[in-house]
Amino acid sequence: MTTSPPHDPKLLLCIDAPSLLHRNHHARQGTALRDRGGRPAWALHGMVRQVLEAIESFAPDAVVLGLDDKTSSLRAQQYPDYKAGRAEKDPDLVDQLGRAGALLGALGLLTITPPGLEADDVSASAAAWAERAGWRCVIITSDRDAFSHISETTEVLRLINGGMHASPLLNPARLHAMYGVAAEHYLEYAALRGDASDNLPGVDGIGEKGAAALLAQVGSMHEVWADLEHCDGATVAAALDDYCAEQGQRRISAGLLKRLREPGARERFEFNLTLMGGRADLDLGLEPDTAGSPGLLPLDPDRVRRVVDHFGVEATTELALRVLTR
After folding, report:
1. pTM for the complete prediction?
2. Which residues of 73-90 are buried (b: 16+ CB within 10 A; e: fewer)?
3. pLDDT (0 to 100) of residue 19
4. Which residue of 116, 185, 221, 288 pairs with 74 in a disulfide if CB–CB is 3.0 to 4.6 A?
5. Closest C-alpha to 143, from 162, 124, 126, 116
6. Element (H, E) at 137
7. What are the chain's domains?
Protein backbone atom coordinates (compact mmCIF):
# COMPACT_ATOMS: atom_id res chain seq x y z
CA MET A 1 0.00 0.00 0.00
CA THR A 2 1.30 3.47 -0.88
CA THR A 3 0.67 6.62 1.09
CA SER A 4 0.47 10.16 -0.13
CA PRO A 5 3.35 12.44 0.83
CA PRO A 6 2.49 14.92 3.58
CA HIS A 7 1.44 18.37 2.43
CA ASP A 8 3.81 21.25 3.12
CA PRO A 9 2.52 23.53 5.89
CA LYS A 10 0.69 26.61 4.73
CA LEU A 11 2.46 29.96 5.02
CA LEU A 12 1.39 33.11 6.84
CA LEU A 13 3.27 36.24 5.76
CA CYS A 14 3.33 38.99 8.41
CA ILE A 15 4.65 42.39 7.34
CA ASP A 16 5.73 45.24 9.62
CA ALA A 17 4.26 48.08 7.55
CA PRO A 18 5.79 51.04 9.51
CA SER A 19 9.22 49.45 9.13
CA LEU A 20 8.81 49.40 5.35
CA LEU A 21 7.50 52.96 5.34
CA HIS A 22 10.44 54.34 7.31
CA ARG A 23 12.98 52.63 5.08
CA ASN A 24 11.28 53.70 1.87
CA HIS A 25 10.88 57.28 3.04
CA HIS A 26 14.63 57.63 3.42
CA ALA A 27 15.46 55.58 0.33
CA ARG A 28 12.96 57.20 -2.05
CA GLN A 29 12.53 60.73 -0.75
CA GLY A 30 14.64 62.03 -3.62
CA THR A 31 12.05 60.83 -6.13
CA ALA A 32 9.53 63.33 -4.70
CA LEU A 33 6.76 61.03 -5.99
CA ARG A 34 3.26 62.35 -5.38
CA ASP A 35 -0.02 60.58 -5.97
CA ARG A 36 -2.70 61.80 -8.36
CA GLY A 37 -4.07 63.97 -5.54
CA GLY A 38 -0.74 65.75 -5.16
CA ARG A 39 0.12 64.23 -1.77
CA PRO A 40 3.57 62.84 -0.85
CA ALA A 41 3.59 59.17 -1.87
CA TRP A 42 7.17 57.95 -2.19
CA ALA A 43 7.18 56.01 1.10
CA LEU A 44 3.72 54.54 0.49
CA HIS A 45 4.63 53.56 -3.05
CA GLY A 46 7.87 51.94 -1.88
CA MET A 47 6.02 50.07 0.85
CA VAL A 48 3.44 48.75 -1.60
CA ARG A 49 6.19 47.67 -4.01
CA GLN A 50 7.94 45.73 -1.24
CA VAL A 51 4.69 44.14 -0.07
CA LEU A 52 4.07 42.99 -3.64
CA GLU A 53 7.63 41.69 -4.00
CA ALA A 54 7.28 39.75 -0.75
CA ILE A 55 3.98 38.17 -1.79
CA GLU A 56 5.41 37.26 -5.17
CA SER A 57 8.56 35.74 -3.62
CA PHE A 58 6.97 33.76 -0.81
CA ALA A 59 3.58 32.86 -2.36
CA PRO A 60 1.83 32.93 1.05
CA ASP A 61 -1.56 31.42 1.82
CA ALA A 62 -2.47 34.41 4.00
CA VAL A 63 -1.06 37.89 4.59
CA VAL A 64 -1.38 40.22 7.57
CA LEU A 65 0.15 43.68 7.97
CA GLY A 66 0.85 45.19 11.37
CA LEU A 67 0.65 48.92 12.11
CA ASP A 68 1.52 51.01 15.17
CA ASP A 69 -1.16 52.76 17.17
CA LYS A 70 -0.12 56.42 16.87
CA THR A 71 -2.77 57.67 19.29
CA SER A 72 -1.61 55.88 22.45
CA SER A 73 1.17 53.62 23.70
CA LEU A 74 0.88 51.25 26.62
CA ARG A 75 4.67 50.98 26.72
CA ALA A 76 5.11 54.73 26.92
CA GLN A 77 2.54 54.84 29.72
CA GLN A 78 4.60 52.27 31.60
CA TYR A 79 7.92 53.91 30.74
CA PRO A 80 7.61 57.59 29.74
CA ASP A 81 11.15 57.63 28.31
CA TYR A 82 10.30 54.85 25.84
CA LYS A 83 11.83 55.79 22.46
CA ALA A 84 12.82 59.19 23.86
CA GLY A 85 15.69 60.86 22.06
CA ARG A 86 14.67 59.83 18.56
CA ALA A 87 14.87 62.55 15.96
CA GLU A 88 11.58 64.23 15.11
CA LYS A 89 9.96 62.62 12.08
CA ASP A 90 9.76 64.43 8.77
CA PRO A 91 6.19 65.77 8.37
CA ASP A 92 5.94 64.06 4.97
CA LEU A 93 6.73 60.72 6.63
CA VAL A 94 4.19 61.37 9.37
CA ASP A 95 1.58 62.11 6.70
CA GLN A 96 2.28 58.85 4.87
CA LEU A 97 2.37 56.81 8.07
CA GLY A 98 -1.09 58.17 8.85
CA ARG A 99 -2.47 57.16 5.46
CA ALA A 100 -0.93 53.68 5.27
CA GLY A 101 -3.71 51.78 7.02
CA ALA A 102 -6.45 53.24 4.83
CA LEU A 103 -4.46 52.55 1.67
CA LEU A 104 -3.74 48.92 2.54
CA GLY A 105 -7.31 48.39 3.69
CA ALA A 106 -8.66 49.89 0.48
CA LEU A 107 -6.63 47.31 -1.45
CA GLY A 108 -8.39 44.58 0.49
CA LEU A 109 -5.36 43.49 2.52
CA LEU A 110 -5.74 42.59 6.20
CA THR A 111 -4.23 45.30 8.39
CA ILE A 112 -4.19 45.34 12.19
CA THR A 113 -3.55 48.35 14.41
CA PRO A 114 -3.70 46.96 17.95
CA PRO A 115 -4.90 49.60 20.45
CA GLY A 116 -1.98 50.98 22.43
CA LEU A 117 0.44 48.56 20.80
CA GLU A 118 2.77 48.21 17.83
CA ALA A 119 3.38 46.26 14.65
CA ASP A 120 5.76 43.95 16.55
CA ASP A 121 2.84 42.80 18.70
CA VAL A 122 1.05 41.77 15.50
CA SER A 123 4.20 39.89 14.47
CA ALA A 124 4.34 38.09 17.82
CA SER A 125 0.69 37.10 17.53
CA ALA A 126 1.18 35.95 13.92
CA ALA A 127 4.03 33.67 14.98
CA ALA A 128 1.92 32.24 17.80
CA TRP A 129 -1.09 31.78 15.53
CA ALA A 130 1.00 29.94 12.92
CA GLU A 131 2.43 27.57 15.52
CA ARG A 132 -1.04 26.75 16.87
CA ALA A 133 -2.47 26.28 13.38
CA GLY A 134 0.37 24.09 12.11
CA TRP A 135 1.44 26.75 9.60
CA ARG A 136 4.79 28.35 8.86
CA CYS A 137 5.25 32.09 9.34
CA VAL A 138 7.61 34.60 7.75
CA ILE A 139 7.88 38.04 9.36
CA ILE A 140 9.25 40.90 7.29
CA THR A 141 10.71 43.80 9.26
CA SER A 142 13.87 45.81 9.91
CA ASP A 143 13.27 45.66 13.68
CA ARG A 144 15.51 43.32 15.67
CA ASP A 145 12.74 42.86 18.26
CA ALA A 146 11.16 40.35 15.87
CA PHE A 147 14.13 38.02 16.34
CA SER A 148 12.53 36.88 19.58
CA HIS A 149 9.72 35.32 17.51
CA ILE A 150 12.06 33.05 15.51
CA SER A 151 11.35 29.37 16.03
CA GLU A 152 11.12 26.10 14.13
CA THR A 153 7.94 27.47 12.52
CA THR A 154 8.77 31.18 12.17
CA GLU A 155 11.52 32.90 10.18
CA VAL A 156 12.31 36.61 9.97
CA LEU A 157 13.36 38.42 6.81
CA ARG A 158 15.29 41.36 8.20
CA LEU A 159 15.29 44.23 5.74
CA ILE A 160 18.70 45.80 5.26
CA ASN A 161 20.25 47.99 2.60
CA GLY A 162 19.73 46.36 -0.75
CA GLY A 163 16.03 45.69 -0.38
CA MET A 164 13.88 42.60 -0.16
CA HIS A 165 15.99 40.26 -2.27
CA ALA A 166 19.32 41.16 -0.61
CA SER A 167 18.04 40.72 2.96
CA PRO A 168 18.77 37.69 5.15
CA LEU A 169 16.06 35.19 6.04
CA LEU A 170 16.80 34.18 9.63
CA ASN A 171 15.91 30.83 11.18
CA PRO A 172 17.13 29.47 14.54
CA ALA A 173 20.44 28.20 13.11
CA ARG A 174 21.26 31.48 11.38
CA LEU A 175 20.27 33.52 14.41
CA HIS A 176 22.59 31.40 16.55
CA ALA A 177 25.41 31.90 14.06
CA MET A 178 24.93 35.68 14.28
CA TYR A 179 24.63 36.09 18.04
CA GLY A 180 25.72 32.83 19.64
CA VAL A 181 22.31 32.60 21.32
CA ALA A 182 19.52 30.05 20.91
CA ALA A 183 16.37 31.53 19.38
CA GLU A 184 14.30 30.76 22.47
CA HIS A 185 16.69 32.88 24.56
CA TYR A 186 17.01 35.85 22.22
CA LEU A 187 14.54 37.97 24.22
CA GLU A 188 16.61 37.42 27.38
CA TYR A 189 19.73 38.33 25.43
CA ALA A 190 18.10 41.56 24.25
CA ALA A 191 16.88 42.39 27.77
CA LEU A 192 20.42 42.03 29.13
CA ARG A 193 21.94 44.02 26.27
CA GLY A 194 19.30 46.74 26.15
CA ASP A 195 18.07 48.60 23.07
CA ALA A 196 19.38 52.09 22.44
CA SER A 197 16.86 52.70 19.65
CA ASP A 198 14.02 52.34 22.17
CA ASN A 199 15.99 54.17 24.90
CA LEU A 200 16.12 51.00 27.01
CA PRO A 201 19.44 50.59 28.83
CA GLY A 202 20.64 47.07 29.44
CA VAL A 203 22.04 45.58 32.63
CA ASP A 204 25.04 47.76 33.36
CA GLY A 205 28.35 46.20 32.36
CA ILE A 206 27.00 43.08 30.67
CA GLY A 207 26.93 43.96 26.97
CA GLU A 208 26.39 41.71 23.97
CA LYS A 209 29.36 39.39 24.54
CA GLY A 210 28.63 38.89 28.21
CA ALA A 211 24.94 38.28 27.57
CA ALA A 212 25.69 35.73 24.85
CA ALA A 213 28.22 33.91 27.04
CA LEU A 214 25.84 33.69 29.99
CA LEU A 215 22.98 32.27 27.92
CA ALA A 216 25.12 29.95 25.82
CA GLN A 217 26.87 28.38 28.79
CA VAL A 218 24.08 28.37 31.39
CA GLY A 219 20.90 28.04 29.34
CA SER A 220 18.59 30.77 30.60
CA MET A 221 18.58 33.72 32.95
CA HIS A 222 16.12 31.88 35.18
CA GLU A 223 18.92 29.40 35.90
CA VAL A 224 21.43 32.21 36.35
CA TRP A 225 19.31 34.06 38.90
CA ALA A 226 18.50 30.80 40.72
CA ASP A 227 22.20 29.93 40.97
CA LEU A 228 22.99 33.39 42.33
CA GLU A 229 20.33 32.94 45.01
CA HIS A 230 21.24 29.39 46.01
CA CYS A 231 25.05 29.28 45.81
CA ASP A 232 26.15 32.82 45.00
CA GLY A 233 26.71 31.95 41.32
CA ALA A 234 29.24 29.15 41.84
CA THR A 235 27.76 26.94 39.10
CA VAL A 236 27.55 29.85 36.66
CA ALA A 237 31.15 30.82 37.41
CA ALA A 238 32.37 27.27 36.80
CA ALA A 239 30.55 27.04 33.47
CA LEU A 240 31.92 30.39 32.29
CA ASP A 241 35.45 29.62 33.44
CA ASP A 242 35.44 26.25 31.67
CA TYR A 243 34.27 27.96 28.49
CA CYS A 244 36.98 30.63 28.70
CA ALA A 245 39.63 27.99 29.31
CA GLU A 246 38.50 26.03 26.24
CA GLN A 247 38.61 29.21 24.14
CA GLY A 248 41.94 30.36 25.53
CA GLN A 249 40.35 33.57 26.82
CA ARG A 250 40.69 35.42 30.08
CA ARG A 251 38.11 34.56 32.69
CA ILE A 252 34.99 36.71 32.67
CA SER A 253 32.90 35.12 35.42
CA ALA A 254 33.93 37.43 38.29
CA GLY A 255 33.08 40.59 36.37
CA LEU A 256 29.76 39.31 35.04
CA LEU A 257 28.59 37.99 38.38
CA LYS A 258 29.57 41.23 40.09
CA ARG A 259 27.41 43.16 37.63
CA LEU A 260 24.46 40.80 38.10
CA ARG A 261 24.67 41.20 41.88
CA GLU A 262 24.45 44.98 41.64
CA PRO A 263 21.26 46.53 43.09
CA GLY A 264 18.66 46.92 40.38
CA ALA A 265 20.31 44.55 37.89
CA ARG A 266 17.61 41.92 38.01
CA GLU A 267 14.88 44.56 38.07
CA ARG A 268 16.31 46.19 34.94
CA PHE A 269 16.45 42.82 33.18
CA GLU A 270 12.86 41.93 34.08
CA PHE A 271 11.60 45.41 33.19
CA ASN A 272 13.19 45.11 29.75
CA LEU A 273 11.63 41.70 29.27
CA THR A 274 8.22 43.22 29.93
CA LEU A 275 8.65 46.10 27.47
CA MET A 276 10.46 44.15 24.76
CA GLY A 277 8.22 41.10 24.76
CA GLY A 278 5.59 41.23 22.02
CA ARG A 279 1.95 40.48 22.78
CA ALA A 280 1.21 37.06 21.33
CA ASP A 281 -2.51 36.94 22.14
CA LEU A 282 -4.01 39.39 19.62
CA ASP A 283 -6.98 38.20 17.60
CA LEU A 284 -5.81 38.41 13.98
CA GLY A 285 -9.24 37.59 12.64
CA LEU A 286 -7.81 34.96 10.29
CA GLU A 287 -10.27 32.36 9.04
CA PRO A 288 -8.29 30.51 6.38
CA ASP A 289 -11.00 27.93 5.74
CA THR A 290 -13.53 30.61 4.77
CA ALA A 291 -13.13 31.76 1.18
CA GLY A 292 -12.92 35.52 0.80
CA SER A 293 -12.14 36.18 4.46
CA PRO A 294 -9.64 38.95 5.31
CA GLY A 295 -6.01 38.03 4.79
CA LEU A 296 -6.58 35.62 1.92
CA LEU A 297 -5.69 36.11 -1.72
CA PRO A 298 -6.65 36.73 -4.50
CA LEU A 299 -8.13 40.23 -4.28
CA ASP A 300 -10.65 41.99 -6.49
CA PRO A 301 -8.92 43.23 -9.70
CA ASP A 302 -11.04 46.37 -10.09
CA ARG A 303 -10.37 47.35 -6.50
CA VAL A 304 -6.64 46.74 -6.81
CA ARG A 305 -6.36 48.70 -10.06
CA ARG A 306 -8.36 51.65 -8.68
CA VAL A 307 -6.24 51.94 -5.52
CA VAL A 308 -2.76 51.31 -6.92
CA ASP A 309 -3.36 53.40 -10.03
CA HIS A 310 -3.63 56.41 -7.71
CA PHE A 311 0.19 56.38 -7.53
CA GLY A 312 0.32 57.03 -11.26
CA VAL A 313 2.99 54.35 -11.80
CA GLU A 314 1.74 51.88 -14.39
CA ALA A 315 4.47 49.32 -13.67
CA THR A 316 3.34 49.11 -10.05
CA THR A 317 -0.29 48.74 -11.08
CA GLU A 318 0.64 45.88 -13.40
CA LEU A 319 2.70 44.20 -10.66
CA ALA A 320 -0.17 44.54 -8.18
CA LEU A 321 -2.66 43.00 -10.58
CA ARG A 322 -0.33 40.10 -11.32
CA VAL A 323 0.51 39.39 -7.69
CA LEU A 324 -2.73 40.15 -5.85
CA THR A 325 -5.50 39.04 -8.19
CA ARG A 326 -4.42 35.65 -9.59
Report:
1. 0.94
2. bbbeeebeeeeeeeeeee
3. 96
4. 116
5. 124
6. strand 136-141
7. 11-174+278-324 (3.40.50.1010), 186-276 (1.10.150.20)
